[in-house]
Design a protein that fits this description.
- The protein has 3 domains: 4-83, no CATH class; 96-140; 157-197 and 208-348, Ribonuclease H-like superfamily/Ribonuclease H (Nucleotidyltransferase, domain 5).
- By secondary structure, the chain is α/β, with parallel strands linked by helices.
- Helix content is 43%, strand content 11%.
- The protein has helices spanning 18-29, 35-48, 53-60, 64-77, 96-108, 114-125, 131-140, 157-172, 239-252, 272-278, 300-311, 320-342, and strands at residues 4-8, 11-15, 178-186, 217-222, 231-234, 258-263, 285-289.
- It has 12 helices and 7 strands.
- The chain starts with a strand and ends in a 20-residue tail after the last helix.
């Protein structure tokens, strides 16, 4: 019989079977191990040794009600209950069955914040959680606060796969007088971009805002082998800026026979004037078109992300000129000097994106 109890005058004895007693003593002697297992084992051992419940609970810093729940769980499940990490016997909180039902709801319905979840729990189960308690419970149940991925609904999986295969084949057979660039345009607005960071809880952190509407127009390219980043700063990104970028690429690669440039399908890239420029007999530029709706296959998009992180996130520029100079300085000075810092982020580690692999919520 597990945990046999005998009533005597003024004392309640709790007897453990010899095999359980041996295992509990082994757990209690461990130097390392889960704290919750040790505390539950010590509770049962102290009761077995004749200590009264009030003294045991005070020594272990637990509520008497929690200790009684532990003993009930032991009587029901034996020593297997010791390792249950998801076991919670706190008064007013959800039991195991209610938590499973809540998990089912959370996976079907999107709650935007813990206030909505706490309201749902109170309305459905008549239980109240603090904000921090709700967050801890959600983490324990396997949930985390994050943004859903934004996937292009019209992306062609086969086209993505073919592009990746052809790109890898190109790199494996690239001659010494050939080079590969990824090209694209970026248009950062003269605005502050608030970004997440670690701040002291007592500080009310803020960034100054400005009302600028101007933006910097950059048409650029990046070579992942040398981290060369030629670019042109223009009034408007169009066919003329495309040709200007191509001319800069040729000027920087005079020793190359072929310059492969990977581009998206923007209309100005397909302009007649651009096609005429590319048809020149001595033209070194050879275009490789990205699949439609596949910006994740263009490595320069990752470079633009790094640029925003270092130049625009939580940064205030009083004037447009200062803003533009900071962007140009990053592309012209910072990248060549610190390119080893960015090469693990700006990569060609591509993958096929498919909505089949995700849970679509909208």
């Amino acid at each position: 019989m597990i945990g046999k109890k005998d009533s005597t005058v003024g004392m309640e004895l709790f007897h453990l079977p010899p095999e359980d007693l041996k295992e509990l003593r082994r757990i209690a002697r461990r130097v390392k191990g889960p704290a919750h297992e040790w505390k539950r084992a010590r509770y049962l051992l102290l009761l077995h040794e004749g200590e009264d419940i009030a003294t045991v609970c005070r020594c272990l810093d637990i509520r008497r009600g929690l200790g009684e729940e532990w003993r009930k769980k032991y009587e029901q499940n034996g020593l297997s209950f010791l390792c249950l990490k998801d076991y919670s016997a706190r008064e007013g909180h959800l039991n195991h069955a209610q938590e499973e039902a809540l998990c089912t709801i959370l996976r079907k319905r999107v709650f935007l914040n813990t206030d909505e979840i706490r309201e749902y729990i109170h309305k459905t189960y008549k239980r109240k959680y603090s904000r921090s308690g709700c967050i801890k419970a959600l983490h324990r149940l396997g949930f985390s606060y994050k943004k859903p991925e934004q996937l292009p609904a019209q992306a062609d999986e086969l086209a993505q796969k073919n592009f990746i295969e052809n790109y890898e084949k190109l790199l494996n057979n690239l001659e010494a007088d050939e080079v590969v660039y990824f090209g694209d345009a970026v248009h950062p607005d003269h605005q502050v971009r608030p970004a997440h960071g670690w701040f002291h809880k007592d500080d009310r952190s803020a960034v100054s805002a400005n009302s600028g509407r101007k933006r910097v127009n950059i048409h650029g390219a990046v070579c992942l082998e040398s981290f060369d980043t030629p670019f042109v700063e223009v009034e408007t990104v169009n066919r003329d800026s495309t040709i200007a970028l191509f001319e800069r690429l040729e000027a920087r690669n005079k020793d190359k026979r072929v310059i492969h440039v990977i581009l998206d399908n923007a209309r100005y890239h397909h302009a007649i004037k651009v096609k005429e420029w590319l048809s020149r007999p001595d033209c070194k530029i050879k275009i490789i078109w990205l699949p439609p709706y596949a910006p994740h296959l263009n490595s320069i998009e990752r470079l633009w992300g790094v640029m925003h992180k270092h130049v625009t996130h939580n940064k205030f520029y009083k004037t447009y000129r200062a803003f533009a100079e900071a962007i140009v300085h990053f592309l012209r000075e910072t990248i060549p000097k610190e390119w080893k810092t960015f090469r693990d982020t700006v990569t060609d580690n591509f993958r096929v994106i498919s909505t089949k692999d995700c849970k679509i919520i909208g």
